[in-house]
Design goal:
about 160 residues, about 20% strand, disordered N terminus
Length: about 160
């Protein structure tokens, strides 16, 4: 990972679980446009990256979580006036691989905290289950606001490997 990538990830790493950032063995990220087709792009990027890292056996669970995090960012974190058809790329997906862990993190421009919905209220509801699924399929998850010049937040999910 070059200097540019390291600098870009620094605010992201500050809010991740206590894993030594210098021990990261691989990292990849992709900017995603403000369109729902971005979820498909994020899944394909995840598939390609996991195959390259020889972690493709974990694709199903990780791709489900990536899909939910990206969908939540597109649905809830973009300002209402964000044009959905322009080529702007306000959401970024990061994948980081340590020897025994993988972190998926989605950065978006909103300062609002993610809100979990009580699934007991209406489990059949189409929206509101995303973070419940993230919690169910990952080993842990969290979020933090970005500091410095970057505005917004990062929502991350951690997977234990092996």
């Amino acid at each position: 990972m070059g200097t540019n990538g390291s600098t870009m990830l620094e605010p992201l790493r500050q809010g991740l679980p206590p894993i030594d950032p210098s021990a990261v063995s691989d990292a990849a990220s992709v900017a995603l446009p403000a369109r729902y087709e971005a979820v498909c792009s994020a899944r394909q990027f995840t598939r390609n990256t996991l195959c390259r890292w020889e972690l493709d056996e974990r694709f199903d669970d990780i791709a489900l979580v990536v899909s939910e995090l990206v969908t939540n960012a597109l649905r809830h974190a973009l300002p209402a006036d964000t044009p959905r058809d322009r080529q702007e790329q306000p959401v970024r997906l990061h994948l980081m691989h340590w020897a025994s862990r993988l972190v998926c993190a989605v950065r978006d421009p909103s300062d609002d905290s993610p809100v979990t919905r009580d699934t007991d209220d209406d489990f059949s509801a189409e929206s509101g289950r995303g973070l419940f699924l993230v919690d169910s399929f990952s080993d842990s998850w969290g979020w933090h606001p970005l500091a410095g010049a970057l505005r917004g937040k990062v929502v991350w999910a951690l997977f234990r490997l092996g």
